[in-house]
Amino acid sequence: MLTPDIPAPSTSKLYFLKEVYYGFRPNAPQFTPDDYPDLTDKTAIVTGCNTGIGKYVLELLYQKNCHVIGVVRTSEKGEQAKEDILERNPESKGKIDIIGECDFLDLNKVIKAGKRIGEILDQSDCGALNIVIHNAGLTWLVAPNSAKSSIQGYESMYQTNVLGPQLLQHYIDPYLLKDDDKTLKRLVWVSSAAHFFTPEPYGIYWDDPGFKETSIENRPTGMNLYGQSKTYNIYQAQAWYDKHKEQADKIGCVSVSCYPGNLSTDMSRAWWPPFVTAAKLVVWDGVYGAYSELYGALSPSLTTADSGSYIVPFGEIHDPREDVKAGLTNGIATHIWDFCEEQISEYLP
User: Fold this and answer.
1) Is the omega angle on the peptide bond into residue 314 within 30 degrees of 0, that is, cis?
2) Which segments of the protein form a coiled coil according to its record (predicted)?
């Protein structure tokens, strides 16, 4: 992908340090379950919800009587998460459907999950689709050396965190964009402060973003690759809104990115045990990450004017890195979205 001829602003090390520090010592959450609305007759889609932050999100939505469609890679683990939540919340009037075998490392499986979502949403007893949270992701802590590629040949985090969600959203759009419930329409793309650890300009490896033509041994570090994928998620939130602005404004659909926080989720299973012990001193329980994501999904303070915003722990809006912020409005976000569209074109509905 050619680097667009669009000058980028300089970046500030001071802002970088400030935001990194904030991730470890964020303000207390001000929008928590007691503030969430009743979600009877509303439907949400949450990816990656059999464990970690996603499981907390699934449970908090279900507690508010929401119909939640959980999209997971492993059906057995998804069904077990569902049973755990149902057992703990017998008073809920909500519903949980699990769609398994959605492995973002194979775009053909994303297609199957997208079609299954449509089948569920087409059922007569299913209400409007109100919320979509692209929570599933592969972290550099699981693939520290970018040790594998996807079925389609892309670097694993790039396909899992970028191409997979963008493809799945195409199957979801006909339902999310319906003019059927203007009281709540939200789209959340889960990002990370790791976007600060990416190359300039604009946080993208422009020569070969998906590293399809780059051997594994010649790829950047896992942290850098993860950071690039999370930069994409910030751009996707803005670009999706720009592409659907007329209809999104009509129905009040807000699209945001979200950095959930530095959390002690199940992803830490891949860490060296002594490091896990030390890390727990400076990270937060996974439920706090759910508070961040559900601020984007539920907070009444957000309007379409906030689309493209970057939410940070535990429910505030900050600016991303200076060049990434500029990329949201100077054409970079759309350029990147369109490039991804080319890569997934043969899989689109």
Assistant:
1) yes
2) none
Tell me which residue of 100, 94, 252, 107 sits closest to 187, measured CA to CA: 252
| pLDDT reported for residue 125 | 82
**pLDDT tens for each residue of 237-249:** 999 999 999 999 9
DSSP 144-160: TT---B-TTSSBHHHII
pLDDT value of residue 148: 83
Closest by alpha carbon to 112, among 167, 48, 187? 167
* pLDDT at site 295: 99
Alpha-carbon distance of 185 to 66, in angstroms, equals 14
Radius of gyration of the chain (CA): 19
With tokens 């040790």, the residue in question is 147
DSSP 205: -
Q: Decide: 284 and 264 in contact? Cβ < 8 Å.
A: yes
Q: pLDDT under 70 in the chain at which residues?
A: 1-2, 141-147, 265-281
- The position carrying tokens 């972290």 is 139
Q: Which residues contact 44 (CB under 8 A, 6 or more apart)?
A: 61, 66, 67, 68, 69, 129, 130, 131, 132, 133, 297
- Beta strand ranges found along 184-270 (DSSP E): 185-190, 253-258
Give ∠ CA 116-119-123 in degrees, rounded to 5.
150
The residues facing 44 across adjacent strands are 68, 131
DSSP string, 96-110: EEEE----TTSHHHH
Q: Where are the domains of the chain?
A: 13-347
pLDDT digits (tens, 9 = 90+) for 171-181: 999 999 999 99
> Half-sphere exposure of residue 273, counting CA atoms within 13 Å on the CB side?
0
Single pTM value for the model: 0.95
Best CA proximity match to 323, nearest among 313, 336, 305: 336
Of the candidate CATH numbers 3.40.630.190, 3.30.450.20, 3.40.50.720, 3.40.50.10540, the domain formed by 13-347 belongs to: 3.40.50.720
